User: Fold this.
Amino acid sequence: MSVTDEIKAKIDIVDLVSEAGVKLRHAGRNYTGFCPFHVNKHTPAFVVWPETGTWRCFGECNEGGDIFKFVMKKEGIDFKEALQKLAARAGVELPAYRPEKPEQKETYDRLRKLLEDALIFYRSHLLNHADILTYLHEKRGLNDATIETFGLGYAPQGFDNALQHFTQRGYSEQDLVDAGLLSENESGKRFDRFRHRIMIPIRDDQGRMAGFGARIVDPDDIPKFLNSPETPIFSKGRLLYGLDRARKPIRAADQAVIVEGYLDVIALHQAGYENVVSPMGTALTEDQLRLLKKFTRRIVLALDPDTAGQKAVLRGLEAARSAMDREGELGFDARGLLRNEARLQADLRVASMPDDLDPDEIVARDKDEWKRLIENAKPIVTHVMDALAAGRDLKDAKVKNQIAAQVLPLIEDLPNAMERDTYRQQLARLLRVDERALIGAQAQGPRVRRARPVERKPARESAQVAVRTPSGQKVEGYVISVLFRRPELLYRLDRLLQQYGLLPLETEDFEYTDYQMLFGLIRQAVEQDQAEHHEFVVDALPESLRGLSRELMTQSEQLDPVEEKLLEELLRGVIKMRRVAAGENLNQLRFLQEEAHQAGDLRAASYQDLVLQHTKLLRDLDQANQRISLKRFQ
Assistant:
């Protein structure tokens, strides 16, 4: 992950824009408001997309970008200053200059290729092991299609099956260690990490192989679940199992559900509940919640009835995390979740599983029951109250005092005054005491004073919108890589665009900040005559772009030697970039127009004008594509 990507992952663009004085209103799957960059503010044509971390004004200034572009434009500073400012806000350290190793990307790709090969290896062993297939079919209720879809496999018994298989195919033992497939004992002997276990491939949110989770077959084996070790591409605290398949369903449902087990995720997906993910068997981390926040702010934690978190509630909330940070137990730290809820402005709730059943057993019993359980999920504080009160004599004054002593500190941790009042009233009703008695107990009870978080607005609902596809980023990368290697083609490309009735290439055509910065240097290079164009760009590169520049040079090593064909590829690339962006903008504008129309809002007419502009742009782009194709056959 680059420094800029890390900063983007840790800063919520909705919070950033709101703190800059822009009043945002939740509008379906995004946020809208009045653009802070121009005077004409009759129409709220400024749109923010939380998932992609981008913004755009459809009005007078017609600009857009990410958090870096917003800060640069809002404060009138350059990219370097914006990078430093946002890095400080995100708590990300900016190294003076840390050259990327050229072989790093190749190493990661090789590890992922090895893991993909391992998936096939374990898969073949599963198909030849009838007992394990029977277990998955009959005990876990999984059908063949689901087993195939999730790539389930089986690691055979023995200490050198994977070792022998992959070393015979050209992989080194160190490759296998680096990928987490081998372990090493104190004497230095290497052996298969996974043995006689059901293998569950774990992918990152982009669908790339990262590692494996392995469940025991023999009930006497320990531990019950064994994950890949920490590797350059596998980090338990930064991954969520199933997120690669759950991204779209989470956006569609505007809700993510977190369960404890990998097989629970698989069973729920099979039952049609595809907005479900699982952590790597340890306490939830803020990084994992931030991952989900890109797709929704509504998150439900579905706890198994015997999870350590449930029991920890009864042992004392302050000790919860230390009691739960163990392999195979989903962490439920009420105080930690509340802090994350406040920091992330999310809506975190808890659903408890009934009758000592796991999630997969619930959907096997009654598919609709799962839906009801999630719909009835409770806020964290309410869940804690009910868990502490369950089965206890609430007429006993000492019991009341014990429950109040554990719940009141949680309530005081809440950043919103109205929520604190509401939960105090709820606790008073539960314990059947006067609310003033709770306030008095709170004032008199021994407790360590903590700084109360800054008062914040209630959490907004989730907002998502269709995002630019990875292919869109790939096209941008191709265009910028060619122009970086050969900046002199820019003038000819501009002339070609004008011949087809299109505007010259602009910084705003690129969605990604790094590409925008690099294109600005390319434009400067062709407008000066003091130095060779490529050398000018290289000399002017900020340190933060030097790693990217090496990647781009590698990507553009084998360009078409026929310049006319190369220019045609560039032209088609720019048209595709613009068409993707215009299509997404048009869909968004139509949504805003329909929303305004249904609300009887006069601004619907303003949106209609913008819809027509984007419709014309799409038509012009399609006509240009047709002319290019016709010219090829003339």
Notes: The two ends are 47 Å apart (CA to CA). Residues 384 and 390 are 10 Å apart (CA to CA).
